[in-house]
Structure prediction request, 276 residues.
Amino acid sequence: LNTINMAAKARDAIVVFGGARGMIGSAICREGRLQGHNMIAVSRSDALTQREQSHLGIDTASTAGGSVTLKTANPTNKESYIELLKGAKAVVVSIGSPPLPGNKEEAIAANGLSNIVPIKAASEAGVPRVVVINATMPSWAPSGYRIGKEMAAEGARNFASRKTSKSAIVMKPGVVYGTRYVGQAEFPIPLALLFAPVRILFDLLPSGPFQFLERTLPSVFKGLLEPPVSSSEVAKAVVSSITDENLSGYVEMNPRGIAKKSHAKGLASIVSSSGV
Prediction:
């Protein structure tokens, strides 16, 4: 698609960075399409597998009238996509590397810079709302990962502070489960088999013991004892937040808030500027 056609498609669309191949980003694109939104998935590569294309519904309208279009661009090179953002309803940034030990600078770039550049581009393009997929994490998480995520959240905060009409929602899940596909054979790993039972335990058990542990040993447990959420819940919470006219300014949403928002329609009361 040429630039003119893509710009036309971007009018009132939701642009998702990391929306083509990432477990969370692709779930967001799929959910938005099913709810009738025009989604644009921005990816570094257009080499999608048949499963990925089918999952997203690339260039195929849903029964609700939504669609997903693929755009190839480098998130850290805003000149390759800034025209695409003009007229967009919202920008979602779902880019990052996992919290594993490794090169600190690379982790900062993957979780920080790759988020900040699209956020700044969205501001320059006049996009009214951004949603950033961030993380709830303990203080002992790898430093590069933690610093990068903090940079991304600060970028969202700056976006919201530029104009009162702009808003930024930062989703901070802990563990996110769904089905990951690995290798060229795309071997499925259903993470729900492990984490869905853990989620059930969090839902059934009282929160008191978890809060006690966090207060007693915050350096160990704070940010760790949070219920897992599914990629589908994150996707529903993102789309719901984009269409919620009651949200304004800078908003953070923790795992429990994400779970509630995924079942809510415009319930701004479950979030606040200081988190949920």
